[in-house]
Amino acid sequence: MSGPDPKVTTATLRARKGTAEKTAVVTAYDVVFARLADGAGIDVVLVGDSLGMVVQGERSTLAVTVDEIVYHSRIVSRGVKRAHLVADMPFMSYQASVEDGMRAAGRLMKEGRAEAVKVEGGLEVAELVQRLSRAGIPVMGHVGLTPQSVHQFGGFKVQGRTDDRRAQILADARAVAEAGAYAIVIEAVPQALAAEITRTIPVLTIGIGAGAECDGQVMVMHDLLGLEPAWKPRFVRRYAEMGKAAADAFAAYAADVRAGRFPGPQESFD
Ligand code: KIV
Question: What's the whole-number mean pLDDT along residues 21-50?
């Protein structure tokens, strides 16, 4: 007889490295979708700073604050039972000093109820990753197209296409792994580079636009569910058309209200 699905922890994820078991990660920003993702067997729920773009309507992730991630992470934590919960460290919560990063991470864990934090970067964040890990705060790294550097890159562009940049991303992944990260997101790089990182670095890799050879995959919930019908970049696979379904439902409701068909007797009290 099998018991309830065990809770996914950093130990679970570390143990998957080198096995054939793939890890499914998705973002969530509220309790409803967190509960749905958790109940569907998603392994890791990420409160990403993509919040800025998909929930707040910004053009980048840069405006997101620690307070906002804390708020959404705490909400998401109420919907997550089995999945491992990771919260993103927003732009400028850790770039100015390791101490800033320690305090921000502490808030995400204490107030946001996160079980780990995610930090973008490589060599330049290695000291922070080490300090956080030693303080008992598990760190997920993030290399390749790191969206907080969008203006440095000149747009959301695939990274690692030149020899220099390829070597730099590899060195970044190695530095973050050696500093103690338990997993690393690899975003928007050629699949051969992600495969090399996955083969040579003893830490779970989670790809987004990084090919099939990563140890797991992450998708932004809005992309996976088709909540923005006009947005369909190459790395996205849509598993639903919820944007269209929602628009159709709103239109049907408005038509029923205007025609006097809603509410009917069954939706009214005697
Ligand atoms: O902010 C985010 O949602 C992310 C994922 C896309 C990895 O960083």
Answer: 98
Q: Summarize the confidence of residues 229-240 as an average pLDDT.
A: 94
Q: Quick one: pLDDT at residue 5?
A: 76
**Which of the residues are catalytic?**
187
- Cα Rg for the chain, rounded, in angstroms? 20
Backbone φ and ψ of 257, nearest 5°: -60, -45
Stated pTM of the model: 0.97
In the reported structure, the alpha carbon of residue 90 is separated from the centroid of ligand 1 by a whole-number distance in angstroms of: 11
- Of 45, 208, 219, 236, which is best to mutate to test ligand 1, by the most ligand atoms within 8 angstroms of its C-beta? 208
**Whole-Å CA distances, 141 to 123, 172, 237, 270:** 11, 9, 24, 58
Name which residue sits closest to atom 5 of ligand 1, judged by CA: 48
Statement: residue 11 has pLDDT above 90 = yes
Beta-ladder partners of 118 = 88, 140
Residue found under tokens 């950093």 = 10
**What confidence score (pLDDT) does residue 1 get?**
47
Q: Whose CA is nearest to atom 8 of ligand 1?
A: 48
**Amino acid present at 142:** H
